[in-house]
Amino acid sequence: MKREYTITVYTENQVGLLNRIAIIFSRRKINIDSLNTSPSEVEGIHRFTIVIDETEEVVHKLTRQIEKQVDVLRAFYNSEDEIVWQEMALYKVPTDEIAEKVKVERLLRQHGARAVVIRKDYTVFETTGHREETNNLIRVLEPYGLIEFVRSARVAIIKASSGFHEMLQDFERRDPSEEPTENEYLNEKERVFVM
Q1: Is 137 among the domain residues?
Q2: Are residues 69 and 21 in contact, defined by beta-carbon separation less than 8 angstroms?
Q3: In the list 7, 89, 136, 171, which could disulfide-bond 151, CB 3.0-4.6 Å?
Q4: Distance of alpha carbon 57 from its chain centroid, rounded?
Q5: 99 in the same domain as 30
């Protein structure tokens, strides 16, 4: 049965990686509902947050396929109840409508929205929440002349995770890199490299 899953991918910041990951989805004809990239808690490591609507079996295979990419360090997938997530939304509404109707201000407060830009011709409001919450505010503002609406991609934190930084440290403790070994031929370069 299909349901919404959030895939979290930790990567090195390499040019072309986003394209290679997107190709994995397009080859399988899987639509990405939301895609966000940002730096992670570890310097030099980026985090992709990808939302898709698929069966767990397909998501599991996709995650393993993504992990095979050279620049990908680790990939996880989680259902909605295993993460804490939010989206941000911006709404542009005519200022004269908002100024005349005190009721609108009360509605905005009820939805946790705040003004981020106020001009003579329009006002921009911002709110964060789940998709249903941001969609509800669209319906509330439409009668007042909603000019424009945009929603960000999902940002999510895995509830059971102790962080990728700790995972990297644990990996180093369990499997430290080997000590460098001396090359026995290094001091005999004339003898070894002469033809």
Answers
A1: yes
A2: yes
A3: 89
A4: 21
A5: no
